């Protein structure tokens, strides 16, 4: 089932001489449960694409459908809720709120919603992510790897429609990187979680189901590695 | 170092808001420093000049016996200027002793002597006389006067010293006289007897030419504050007199004044320095913390700690280059304009009136430099302290840091209740508030200090002006008083309405009223009085009550005023009473101004000012019987007799002849008890008197301008006068018209009109100006100071909060990207504002109440006044705190709210 569709996305920054076309007509779609990797050189528009898909940055033109809904037809309020419930965002740096502890950071979207935390899911995630002993630590007391695990926990907590990750391992050593990728893959398999990961690391890209290559704001290549779910 | 200078200026440009706010802070501080220092100096100089104008500018007087001695004194290096007079003989004029003196150059300048007519005598044949009517009449300008000039001796022939008085039987004679004729060249004034003239004569005449006796040298020193050292260096036996009143203003004689002045200036400078250090320190610690990452990079490529400190100090210096001159200008202008606008008010404060000296700004380069120096040091110090720590940090550590301080888990623990009540925004607000202890403390402290300072200053002014108001409460505030015509067979009675209208029509009349006043000295039962007023009378603080034979207590000073109807109704309304209650024609109703106020000495002989309520609340309504004693031809009613058994009063009428004779026989006075009762016709009350009745319904606190507020007054509407006083007395009533005018010329106009209408009018000197002026001055300066200090605090708060918000832009972007709505974001910031505001008030308000209590204690040593908290100040303080906090947050978040999320997320410089 098509869960994400992007049509003719254009994103332009600046005006006149300093105009930058970060996205120049991007279109693709993603099936539910797919693990898609987006690769490309720096400045190619990868991050911009992620932000537009995640409802964080409004495109200059083009549309984004998630779960059949036109993301940018919504008002600001609904967009915020969309980000909360439908999207899980993971960044390379600075994912966590410094004043909140591990549990609070993980349950951030739920807290914002004002809903009750699904304790069972929380326990499970803490277990899987190996954060049980560090539940009440602040981000400043965690290593880089541990911080990223908390971000993943946050991204998965609400079981969003799609998880978007921007170079999630860029800041980590090889052992931590492998672990993070492993966790992401597990969530993809176990929960049938749709995953779009931006990476420059080919070894990670090859673990995905499909690779999209972006250059100068356009998709230049698409490669299917394997069938989704395997 | 050039690159570091450039780095400094660039850093300032990159955060324009904070740079601007810091400059504003410096400008405010510098203005205050300048204003305080220059204000004190200008004020002191004004006092010195006024004193010099009134009493002469000499610092001291030395008695010198020879010209050589005088010249050697004049040659002393400490001497600035001098003049002298020399005795030129004694004479007698109309049984009075006259001392003649020759004067040196510049005598008028050195003393307060002023010529009202003519000029100083120049030759030995010329004389100037004091401006007494007797002399100006007898010896007008240009006429001649012949005096027998000689030596003054006592009975035994011994020559008297110039300053010696003679007493009782020992006479003074002028001997060895030579007749001299002088031409009168002038009349002078302002040369007081006593110390200045130093002679015990009835007249002091000035002559030209040479003298023959001792000199008195009047001098000023180059440095008057070294007066004591100078006089101590003179020979022991040399007689000197110091101009105490003037020297006091230089710290000599009685150092108290100068010490107090320096102390006050010192305290104010300290307060300003404190406020500005807080602001600048905060601004720079923020600035440094933000750039710690950059400092790290600089260090890693080879910059030394010293160079980094230099760059921060350079930034501070650059800000000073802009801020200090601007502050100097604003400070001087501000205090200059204030002094100018208040110049007449200050003139009223002076003990002596009619001086031409006026207060004004006197810029003193040395003092301005001092103020600049203080400000510069303050700023540099405040910038240096945060820089010191930062530049010593390890380079790698510094690079790693992104500007936010390390947070400990326990710091950000908040009660789970917060989340339940205020949701996620509340949780975030509470945690964010707790994260940076030092910055948070700085902001809260700024708020707390401002609130405490503001309310304290308000209390101070409030209590002080209450005190002053109480003191001037006594006097009527009228500018012009016109008394109507007494019953005169030759002139018709004036129509008060028409007369009043004629006066009110004149230009420059601000307000007016008229009334009839009689002294009725009513008595009330003792239990109608308040315990406090009875106690005060018992303790001897008051002499206002009199207990009569019947056990009632009388207020002899109580007068009954029949007040112009309109004014009476207005007074009712102003006091919350319904005029309708006072309009009954047959049973008139009155109001009572129910206070006695006076100064008194307590058991320890300390002077106090107090006011007491006279009648209890339960005494109202109070029936008043106005008793009129009937006339019996040939008799005079002179005494009353009270019989306690029957509780009746009888009236004693003595025959006119008997009284006349008794008076002649007892020239030195007598009391009613001395009279022979058997001579009296004793009539019971019913036969001796008629009565009218009225009711005192209520007490009033506010009375119209024309009435003194030191004694109780009964007010009735004028239209009821005939009902209460009877037709005959009404016909004899004299009207009193009182007016407030806008200018002296308007006052003169009214007096002229009164004259024209054949009434008696008076332009009253506004004696109550002085305390009112004092109140004005205190208010202006106290409020001015407080407002400016509060602005500094507000700038500090603004800086801290807006930076706080800025620093967390990335965090905010992150929250928004994960799904925090605009509304949630705004709520979060609003809650933070609330927390800051409440915290500031939590500390500030109790401190303010404490300060107010302290002020009350100090004030109540002088004046009896009950403790109160000036609620308006509290309300304003609370309002301002929230205003500043919310405004700062709103300004800062404006930028954040509309920022591009994606950009903020990426931006590493936050």
Assembly type of the shown chains? heterodimer
Number of strands of chain B: 27
Question: What is the CATH class of the domain at 2-94 and 163-224 in chain A?
Answer: Alpha Beta
Name the average pLDDT of chain B: 82
Q: What is the number of helical segments of chain B per DSSP (H or I, 4+ residues)? A: 27
Share in β-strands of chain A: 25-35%
Q: Separation of termini of chain B?
A: 27 Å
CATH level-four homologous superfamily name of the domain at 2-94 and 163-224 in chain A? P-loop containing nucleotide triphosphate hydrolases
* Radius of gyration of CA atoms of chain B, rounded to a whole number: 39 Å
Poorly predicted runs of 5 or more residues of chain A: none
Q: What is the 3D form of chain A?
A: globular
What does this protein structure show overall?
The complex is a heterodimer of chains A (230) and B (910). The radius of gyration of chain A is 17 Å and the shape is globular. The longest helix of chain A has 17 residues, at 174-190. With 230 residues, chain A is α/β, with parallel strands linked by helices. Helices cover 33% and strands 28% of the residues of chain A. Chain A has helices spanning 46-53, 76-86, 102-106, 108-113, 119-129, 144-157, 174-190, 202-205; strands at 2-13, 20-31, 35-39, 61-66, 69-70, 87-90, 162-166, 194-198, 210-215, 218-224. Chain A has a domain at 2-94 and 163-224: P-loop containing nucleotide triphosphate hydrolases (Rossmann fold, 3-Layer(aba) Sandwich). Chain B folds into 4 domains: 1-56 and 243-403, no CATH class; 59-221, no CATH class; 408-474 and 767-910, no CATH class; 480-625 and 692-766, no CATH class. Chain B is 49% helix and 20% strand. Chain B has 27 helices and 27 strands. In chain B, α11 crosses α23 and α15 packs antiparallel against α26 (871-897). The two termini of chain B are 27 Å apart. The chains are: A alpha/beta (230), B alpha+beta (910). Chain A binds chain B through residues 47-48, 51, 54, 56-57, 76-77, 80-85, 87, 89, 91, 94-95, 97-101, 108-109, 111-114, 136-138, 140-141, 154, and chain B through 404, 406-409, 412, 419, 423-424, 427-428, 431-432, 434-435, 810-811, 814-824, 900-902, 905-906.
């Amino acid at each position: 089932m098509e869960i994400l569709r992007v049509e003719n996305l254009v994103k332009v920054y600046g005006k006149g001489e300093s105009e930058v076309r970060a996205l120049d007509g991007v279109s693709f779609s993603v099936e539910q449960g797919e693990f898609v990797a987006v690769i490309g050189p720096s400045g190619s528009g990868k991050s911009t694409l992620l932000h537009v898909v995640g409802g964080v940055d409004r495109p200059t033109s083009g549309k984004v459908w998630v779960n059949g809904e036109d993301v940018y037809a919504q008002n600001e309020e609904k967009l915020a809720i969309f980000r909360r419930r439908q999207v899980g965002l993971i960044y390379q740096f600075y994912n966590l709120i410094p004043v909140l502890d591990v549990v609070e950071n993980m349950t951030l979207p739920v807290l914002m919603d004002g809903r009750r935390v699904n304790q069972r899911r929380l326990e499970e995630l803490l277990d899987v992510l190996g954060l049980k002993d560090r539940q009440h630590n602040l981000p400043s007391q965690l290593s880089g790897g541990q911080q990223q695990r908390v971000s993943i926990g946050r991204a998965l907590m609400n079981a969003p429609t799609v998880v978007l990750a921007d170079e999630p391992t860029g800041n980590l050593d090889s052992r931590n990187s492998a672990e993070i990728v492993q966790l992401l893959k597990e969530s993809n398999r176990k929960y049938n979680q749709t995953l779009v990961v931006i990476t420059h690391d080919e070894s990670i890209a090859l673990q995905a189901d499909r690779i999209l290559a972006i250059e100068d704001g356009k998709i230049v290549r698409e490669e299917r590695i394997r069938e989704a779910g395997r | 170092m050039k690159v570091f200078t450039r780095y400094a200026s660039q850093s300032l440009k990159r955060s324009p808001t904070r740079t601007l706010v810091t400059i504003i802070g410096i400008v405010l501080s510098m203005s205050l420093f300048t204003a305080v220092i220059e204000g004190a100096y200008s004020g002191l100089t004004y006092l010195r000049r006024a004193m010099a104008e009134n009493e002469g500018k000499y610092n001291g007087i030395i008695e010198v016996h020879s010209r050589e001695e005088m010249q050697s004194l004049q040659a002393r290096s400490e001497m600035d200027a001098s003049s002298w007079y020399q005795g030129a003989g004694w004479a007698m004029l109309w049984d009075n002793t006259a001392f003649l003196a020759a004067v040196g150059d510049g005598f008028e300048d050195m003393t307060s002597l002023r010529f009202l007519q003519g000029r100083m005598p120049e030759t030995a044949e010329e004389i100037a006389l004091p401006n007494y009517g007797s002399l100006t009449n007898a010896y007008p300008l240009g006429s001649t006067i012949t005096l027998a000039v000689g030596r003054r001796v006592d009975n035994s022939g011994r020559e008297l010293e110039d300053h010696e008085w003679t007493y009782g039987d020992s006479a003074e004679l002028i001997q060895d006289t030579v007749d001299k004729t002088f031409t009168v060249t002038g009349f002078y004034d302002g040369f007081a007897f006593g110390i200045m003239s130093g002679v015990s004569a009835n007249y002091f005449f000035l002559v030209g030419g040479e003298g023959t006796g001792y000199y008195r040298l009047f001098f000023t020193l180059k440095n008057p504050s070294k007066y004591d050292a100078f006089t101590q260096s003179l020979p022991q036996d040399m007689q000197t007199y110091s101009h105490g009143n003037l020297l006091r203003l230089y710290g000599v004689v009685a150092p108290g004044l100068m010490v107090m002045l320096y102390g006050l200036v010192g305290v104010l400078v300290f307060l300003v320095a404190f406020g500005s250090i807080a602001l600048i320190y905060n601004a720079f610690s923020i600035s440094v913390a933000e750039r710690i990452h950059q400092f790290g990079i600089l260090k890693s490529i080879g910059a030394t700690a010293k160079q980094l400190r230099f760059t921060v100090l350079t930034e501070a210096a650059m800000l000073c280059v802009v801020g200090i001159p601007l502050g100097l200008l604003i400070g001087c202008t501000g205090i200059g304009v204030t002094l100018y606008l208040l110049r007449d008010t200050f003139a009223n404060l002076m003990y002596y009136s009619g001086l031409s000296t006026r207060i004004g700004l006197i810029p003193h380069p040395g003092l301005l430099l001092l103020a600049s120096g203080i400000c510069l040091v303050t700023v540099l110090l405040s910038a240096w302290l945060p820089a010191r720590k930062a530049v010593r940090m390890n380079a790698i550590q510094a690079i790693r840091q992104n500007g936010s301080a390390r947070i400990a888990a326990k710091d950000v623990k908040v009660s789970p209740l917060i989340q339940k009540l205020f949701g996620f925004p509340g949780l975030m607000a509470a945690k964010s508030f707790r994260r940076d202890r030092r910055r948070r403390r700085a902001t809260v402290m700024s708020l707390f200090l401002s609130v405490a300072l503001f309310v304290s200053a308000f209390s101070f002014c409030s209590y002080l002006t209450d005190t002053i108001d109480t003191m001037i409460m006594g006097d009527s505030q009228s500018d012009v008083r016109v008394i109507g015509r007494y019953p005169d067979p030759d002139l018709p009675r004036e129509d008060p309405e028409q007369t009043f209208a004629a006066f009110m029509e004149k230009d420059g009349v601000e307000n007016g009223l008229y009334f009839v006043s009689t002294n009725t000295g009513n008595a009330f039962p003792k239990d109608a009085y308040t315990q406090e007023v009875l106690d005060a009378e018992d303790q001897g603080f008051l002499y206002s009550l009199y207990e009569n034979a019947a056990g009632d207590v009388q207020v002899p000073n109580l007068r009954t005023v029949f007040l112009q109807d309109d004014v009476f109704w207005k007074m009712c309304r102003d006091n919350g009473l319904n005029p309708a209650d006072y309009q009954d024609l047959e049973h008139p109703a009155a109001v009572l101004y129910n206070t006695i106020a006076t100064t008194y000495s307590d058991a320890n002989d300390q002077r106090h000012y107090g006011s007491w309520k006279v009648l209890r609340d339960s005494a109202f309504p109070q029936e008043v019987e106005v008793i009129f004693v009937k006339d019996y031809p040939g008799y005079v009613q002179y005494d009353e007799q009270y019989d306690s058994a029957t509780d009746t009063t009888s009236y004693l009428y003595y025959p006119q002849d008997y009284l006349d004779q008794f008076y002649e026989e007892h020239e030195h006075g007598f009391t009613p008890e001395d009279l022979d009762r058997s001579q009296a016709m004793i009539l019971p009350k019913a036969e001796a008197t008629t009565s009218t009745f009225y009711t005192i319904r209520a007490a009033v606190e506010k009375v119209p301008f024309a009435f003194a507020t030191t004694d109780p007054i009964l007010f009735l509407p004028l239209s009821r006068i005939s009902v209460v006083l009877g037709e005959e007395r009404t016909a004899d009533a004299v009207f009193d018209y009182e007016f407030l005018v806008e200018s002296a010329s308007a006052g003169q106009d009214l007096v002229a009109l009164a004259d024209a209408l054949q009434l008696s009018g008076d332009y009253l000197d506004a004696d109550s100006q002085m305390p009112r002026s004092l109140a004005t001055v205190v208010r202006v300066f106290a409020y001015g100071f407080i407002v400016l200090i509060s602005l500094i605090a507000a700038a500090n708060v603004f800086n801290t909060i807006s930076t706080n918000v800025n620093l967390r832009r990335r965090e905010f972007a992150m929250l928004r990207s994960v799904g925090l709505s605009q509304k949630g974001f705004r709520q979060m910031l609003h809650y933070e504002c609330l927390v800051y505001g409440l915290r500031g008030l939590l500390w500030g308000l109790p401190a303010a109440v404490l300060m107010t209590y302290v002020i009350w204690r100090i004030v109540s040593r002088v004046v009896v006044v009950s403790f109160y908290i000036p609620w308006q100040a509290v309300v304003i303080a609370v309002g301002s705190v929230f205003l500043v906090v919310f405004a700062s947050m709103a300004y800062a978040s404006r930028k954040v709210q509309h920022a591009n999320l994606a950009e903020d997320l990426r931006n590493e410089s936050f």
